[in-house]
Amino acid sequence: MDDSGPMIIISDVLEYLFCPRFIYFMHCLDIPQHEELKYKVIRGREVHLEKGRMNPNYLRKRLGVIRRERDVFLASEELHIKGIVDEVLFLNDGTAAPLEYKFAEFKQRVFKTYRYQLALHALMIQDLFDVTVNRGYLCFTRSNDHIEEVWFSKKDFEESRQVVRDILEIIETGEFPKRASNASRCVDCCYRNICA
User: Looking at the domain covering 8-186, what would its CATH class be?
Assistant: First the structure.
């Protein structure tokens, strides 16, 4: 991947993993999905703001946090991606880790969307801060702020990079992609009335 070409945002990755056609409608046809009107999005943003105001100096000592930065803008021209990570945790073992708040319940597993989001944040944190990032954290606000640790494999980073390449291919070629393999996602999709 070269340094020229469009930049996408982290939420594009989440939308693509839900259904590749989101990328086509948003970027090729310029039809917004108006996610800002959805209750879970609105409530998630409110929770994020609340977390930001509470205990601004709090360090998660049991995770080994010695310093943290909140709402950090990250960008990588090489990866063609940008976004804001909720927190960058600097740990006592010399590594760093992204932490993302999720307005969700912990269902005893980490979904691929969350794993890829954290992995892409990790790659950008490594570049920005010149530090090793081998894990990330998810805080599930609807499960009493349960913290789930996510360790990254080489495969996680490779697959995350590939998703970005797949998204860029849709944007650059303008080809209409296949829909999500799970047809139940179509039921509540904001594009269902215009999607063939």
Answer: alpha beta
